[in-house]
Amino acid sequence: MRKQYTAAFKTRVVQELFKEEKTLAQIAAAYEVHPTQLKQWRAVALEGLPSLFEKQDTAELKRVHEQQLTELYAEIGKLSTQVAWLKKSYNSDEGGTSRSGGANRG
């Protein structure tokens, strides 16, 4: 069975790698993780670092989110109206005519 490592554990190990106070082999032995796995974690961390410094336009994200909400609520309203109309149509059909066409075939 494979070992599962938490994100916090991986972060702590990668921080050790970035310090460069110990060799890769020493860190691997200390944390009981294969050196190849440590190299992969370091690569993932280095790949993700630039995104931490990208400035996200929160006003734009908020505007897009609000627009999506408005569109979704409009769709919900439209569908609710259709369901109500269908229920009303179905109930009025039940009272007057039968669904088999009203003729007694026998």
> In percent, how helical is the residue content?
over 70%
Biggest sheet overview = none
Structural class: mainly alpha
The whole-number mean of residue pLDDT values reads 87
Number of separate strands:
0
- Low-confidence segments, given as residue ranges, are none
- Radius of gyration, rounded? 31 Å
What does this protein look like?
By secondary structure, the protein is an all-alpha fold. It folds into two domains: 7-53; 56-94. It contains four helices and no strands. α1 packs across α3 (35-53). The protein is elongated. The mean pLDDT is 87.
Quick structural overview:
Helices cover 75% and strands 0% of the residues. The chain has four helices and no strands.
Which secondary structure elements does this structure contain, and how are they paired or packed?
Elements: H1 7-19, H2 24-31, H3 35-53, H4 58-96
Helix pairs in contact: 1-3
List key phrases describing it.
106 residues, mainly alpha, 2 domains, 4 helices, 0% strand
